[in-house]
Amino acid sequence: MAAYYALGILLVVWALGLSAAGLTRADFPPSGAAGRLIIGATAVIVAGILVALLVSTDKEHPKEEAAAKAAEAKKETAGAPPPATGGAKTVAVSEKEYSIALAGGNDLKAGKYTFKVSNVGKIQHDLAVEGGGIKETKTPLIDAGKENNLTVDLKPGKYTFLCTVPGHEQLGMKVAVTVAGGAKAPAAKPKKKTASTAPKPAPASAVKVTEKEFSIALAGGNDLKAGKYTFQVDNAGQIQHDLAVEGDGIKEKKTALIDGGKQANLAVDLKPGKYTFYCTVPGHEAAGMKQTVTVK
């Protein structure tokens, strides 16, 4: 832009000089050749200004350009796993169906850690840490193939690393970790199991529903007549499931979580239309626990 402004000032000075000469001298320009020379010089100055303007156009708004680049960089980094906290030791943790593995083993020294959790499985998992005065510090749910970080200050004692998705801990996603340097920390209190409470049966048609890893089957098929139903849900799998019904005015009406080998009932008044029967435990619907039911 400096060349553009310099040539602009030169053009102004040149024009003022020509105007002054023309107004004060009767013989200006002194000859036709001099007049052509003045016109040529003016054209060269104007052309120089245009060239300088075109060359410096991409630098005309540096602040706006910098802001645009910053916004683009922010967009590229959105959704990335949170960075490890400064000063913490980094330990890689691998999760899948159904195990948790800490790189380097389950014996650690007291100190601050950032656990870099990779979900190498096919459904959602999280990582929670309990023990030594820590009460279930955990990551958000991590999609398959994704990562997230969990920063924890571990004092000497015994800890439990586990996945809190219903049923996953019971299937093996639980690891005892020993942190050296002091007395044994008090053991974590066992979790209270959620009771499966069945609603009172209403005068309705009873339909048996069987759930397991990872499917849902309605006895008699997926075509029903309009009316009141009590779905007798039998969890024939090994981990917890529930049964939810959604569609035609019903928004996710569901049972409580059902332990493996247990049953619960779900009473629903079905009007004609299309409904979805599915399990709401994270990852289970995506793994196949979903059925479309037609009511006529």
What's a concise summary of this model?
Helices cover 21% and strands 36% of the residues. The protein has helices spanning 2-24, 32-55, 62-77, and strands spanning 89-96, 99-102, 107-109, 111-119, 128-131, 134-138, 147-154, 157-162, 174-180, 205-212, 215-218, 223-224, 227-235, 244-247, 250-254, 263-270, 273-278, 290-295.
Structure description:
- By secondary structure, the protein is an alpha+beta fold.
- The chain folds into three domains: 2-77, no CATH class; 89-180, Immunoglobulin-like (Sandwich), CATH 2.60.40; 205-295, Sandwich (Immunoglobulin-like).
- The chain is 21% helix and 36% strand.
- The protein is built from three helices and 18 strands.
- The chain has helices spanning 2-24, 32-55, 62-77, and strands at 89-96, 99-102, 107-109, 111-119, 128-131, 134-138, 147-154, 157-162, 174-180, 205-212, 215-218, 223-224, 227-235, 244-247, 250-254, 263-270, 273-278, 290-295.
- The strands form four sheets. A five-stranded mixed beta sheet has the order 3-9-8-5-6, with no helix packed on it.
- A hairpin with a 2-residue loop joins strand 5 (128-131) and strand 6 (134-138).
- The longest helix has 24 residues, at 32-55.
- It is elongated and about 115 Å long.
Q: In whole angstroms, how far apart are the ends?
A: 75 Å
Strand element count: 18
CATH architecture of the largest domain: Sandwich
SS strand fraction = 35-45%
Instruction: Specify the biggest β-sheet.
Output: 5 strands, mixed
CATH class of the largest domain: Mainly Beta
Provide the gyration radius in Å. Answer: 37 Å
By DSSP (H or I, 4+ residues per run), the number of helices equals 3
**CATH H-level name of the largest domain... which superfamily?**
Cupredoxins -  blue copper proteins
| Structure class | alpha+beta
Q: Low-confidence runs (pLDDT<50, min 5 residues)? A: 76-80
Across the major sheet, the strand order is 3-9-8-5-6
What is the fold-level CATH name, i.e. the topology of the largest domain? Answer: Immunoglobulin-like
Helix fraction, binned, reads 10-25%
> H/E series, N to C?
HHHEEEEEEEEEEEEEEEEEE
Spatial shape: elongated
Total discrete domains? 3
Mean pLDDT: 84
